[in-house]
Amino acid sequence: MTAPVPADVLSRLKAVLGEAGWSQDPERLAPKLLEWRDRWTGTTPFLALPTTTQDVAAVVGICFEAGVPITTQGGNTGLVGGQIPQGEVLLSTERMRAIREVETFDDVLVAEAGVTLAAVHEACAAVRRRFPLGLASEGSATVGGIVSTNAGGTQVLRYGMARNLVLGLEAVLPNGEVWNGLKRLRKDNTGYDLKQLMIGAEGTLGVVTAAALKLYPVMASRAVAIAGVASPQAAIDLLVRAKDETGGAVEAFELMGRMGVDFALKNIAGMRDPLAAAHPWYVLAEFSSGEPGAAEAAMERFLAAGLDDGLIGDAVVAQTEAQAKALWAIRENQSQAQKPEGATWKHDISVPVSQVAAFLTEATAAMQAFAPGARIAAFGHLGDGNIHYDVLRPEGGEDARHSAGRDQGSRIVHDIVVKLGGSISAEHGLGSMKTAEAARYKSAVELAAHRAIRQALDPKRIMNPRVLF
After folding, report:
1. Which pLDDT value is given to residue 40?
2. Residue 437's pLDDT is what?
3. Please, are residues 401 and 342 in contact by the beta-carbon 8 Å criterion?
């Protein structure tokens, strides 16, 4: 647990933030000290609520001078505990909600750290542009958190991770200095790219206060479909065909196991089974094109060929926007649907796409041997090899007993992932949950480089001190 924050430091923080810029009210703090799945709870002596970059700089500068650690929090949607303080000052970006600029000639939107992803999408739509990063938590996930965790989402296959969609950053460094790197350039080879160090650093190298985001034109046609398939390998074969059929215009290609679909039907109001009969696995595909009617035509050809060749058992194409949202809701509610089912070992892993089927086969056999009766809910972004592999307690089993096996069970899963050339954290980050375990899989050279960078920028290690190396 972090040492108590000196009273004089608290007084200085209150003075620079003003009466509305801080809180020590337990009721105000409570929702920020609990992870949404109830896995982590925290404590903090002080909640900082800055509204400007200068406010953030003042808070960080005071804490740096005194050696007081800080945990930064955006929308509190993180899944690895990095946003939950354990005695540190908690700096929330929730009041930094300005969209500073939208420029269609440069195709850029500049948003402050507390702007939600949903608000970014709304601002883009108003000028007929898109920010192609989609998350189920878009209503609460914020720009600062998306950048700091290098968020992925459903459209990585076509547009890449968050780091591929950020043109520039503004950030407060651990010593309280402001770095203004809000460039909007596609080309800039003038030395080390500091923004790329900040992206995915989980708040350990500074506080992201604003980002220049890369925008794209609105597509003229879009097609969404769900197909039932017999196996993950059949889904991989379909992915290859989809990319060939569309010339790379696959927006998303998601995989879901039947158990996860059953959980959604059982636990999420309004869900409907997408197909007449149950299938072992499902593919949710979305194509888009700048040519009117092209995406729909490509989807029709793709599904017809898959049905003719026996790769697809049945399929349905959304005919309206409402139907498309309903199909996507099945996928987007996979995590939420698990919550009533009890204790779960969560794994956010990635392997080469060619190894997804092998991973699912080997990991499931290992889990059945290690935890007989455990229920496997596997789903994720097949297009980029990112699978959310969740191991739920046996039906009717005890949560405490299942939770007790989490560390050993996750070690088994992660060993398989690394053996197949994968990563134990694909898009959620390491947080406090995976930092120690990730060190097992890093080389001495890589760990030394991580530590040298952090020491150079944060010599007192005050920024999210429990996270990363």
Report:
1. 85
2. 87
3. no
Using the structure block, give the residue that is written with the tokens 């979305």: 286
Report pLDDT for 79: 80
* Residue matched to tokens 């509610």: 333
CA-CA distance, 403 to 385, in Å (whole number)?
A: 27
The beta strand positions in 138-220, using DSSP E, are 166-172, 178-181, 207-214, 216-217
Which residues is 99 bridged to in the sheet? 111
For position 1, what pLDDT does the model report?
66
Residue whose C-alpha is closest to residue 143's, from 104, 99, 194: 99
Determine the Cα–Cα distance for residues 387 and 346; give it in Å rounded to an integer: 11
Please give the pLDDT value at position 453. 95
The two three-digit tokens of residue 347, written as one number: 């794994």
Judge whether 435 and 467 are in contact, CB under 8 Å: yes
Residue written as tokens 């679909």? Answer: 261
Phi, psi of 173 (to 5 degrees): -75, 165
Length of the chain: 469
Residues of the chain where predicted confidence (pLDDT) is lower than 50: none
CB of 70 closer than 8 Å to CB of 462: yes
- The phi, psi pair for 338, rounded to 5°, reads -80, -25
Strands 89-92 and 47-48 turn out to be parallel
Cα–Cα nearest to 54, from 178, 229, 188, 186: 178
Give yes or no for a contact between 97 and 136, defined as CB atoms under 8 angstroms apart. no
